Model the fold of this input.
Amino acid sequence: MPSKILCVAGARPNFMKIAPLMRVLRKNPAFDAKLVHTGQHYDAKLSQVFFEDLKIPRPDIELEVGSGSHASQTAEIIKRFEPVLEQEQPQAVLVVGDVNSTIGCAIVTSKFTLKQPFTCKLGERRRPIMIHVEAGLRSFDWDMPEEINRILTDSISDLLFVSDPAGMENLKKEGVSESRYFFVGNVMIDTLLAAKDQAMKSQILSELGVKEKGYALLTLHRPSNVDDTAALKALLDTIDVVAKDQVVVFPVHPRTRGRLEASGIKLDPARWKLTDPIGYMDFLKLTASAKVVLTDSGGIQEETTVLGVPCITLRENTERPVTISEGTNVLAGTKREAILAAYANVRAGASGAPKTPRFWDGKSAERIDEILTGIFAS
Ligand code: UD1
Done:
């Protein structure tokens, strides 16, 4: 009998991580892999387009939790995931990343008792094996909801798969048993490398009327940057200096769109190209072709590193330090002087060649599959 694994995805940054995992697990006769979509992100432009672009199979189970405060959204995920475990009785649950869906499903799994115990290399189990992919990342910023999600998810997971060498150090310092964590590389980069050739054919540059290396690309959605009107305005005023030098393409996340509308901030359309959120293939093309990327995202710091595009991160910290030590990322923070200094460096020609941190080679999902096969082999 194959071991049943429920793989969970809920929000945009999860989809590119779950895609290569579903592909390898579905091919492996040792596993019966099912996909659960929590519905944390539900807009076609934040969800469906990624399923289409990345050929992710249709979810087997949809929880349709929708938006809400952190408490009510996480609670809804918890409430709706428990009956799924009751029904499915899986031997393992796999979660990715650091969003509310990650911790919500992990907490249910870690307290769930199966009707039938089973045996694997971890011994006799009454609970499903809890697997976290992209474990060990730490920003050390407890004001960041994702940091809470990371720490809690790691602490209740049985198996931790790590993408950044700093993640290995963090888990070691936290006293996690070495038998629980594995350096496997970055599953999101598996997706990038598999999609790159096709993505480069995207027509998004001509659709937006911009030229290769002739624009800056901006994304902003962290609550700390967008929820406070004064902070958001200050940041956009600074980036307007960049816009006076070259056009800024700004795909706007729904959270940010709401704040822009509520605050009445206006951006000059002669210098700024605002768009709706953009699908995976088009966004990859836009990133690869940008002169510089300014962002407060986590994943984009990694994608720019592999694509060799200078990245200015608009945060005071990063949980992905390999993108600085080995990549193209600069942590500028949110202060005007620091952002403009980082931009001046890019203008002067700083960084640029594609970088590949260890194991960011397109084979991370295969490594995870191999380790799991060993653990579940009877
Ligand atoms: C979530 C993740 C964040 C991730 C980001 C990527 C957590 C704690 N945060 O933040 O780590 O980087 O996704 O996008 O899990 N909305 C829509 N349509 C949707 C989803 C949301 O319009 O499909 C709007 C809603 O008004 C919602 C707001 O966007 O209130 C924010 O969405 P939410 O899922 O709460 O958090 P994100 O900011 O997207």
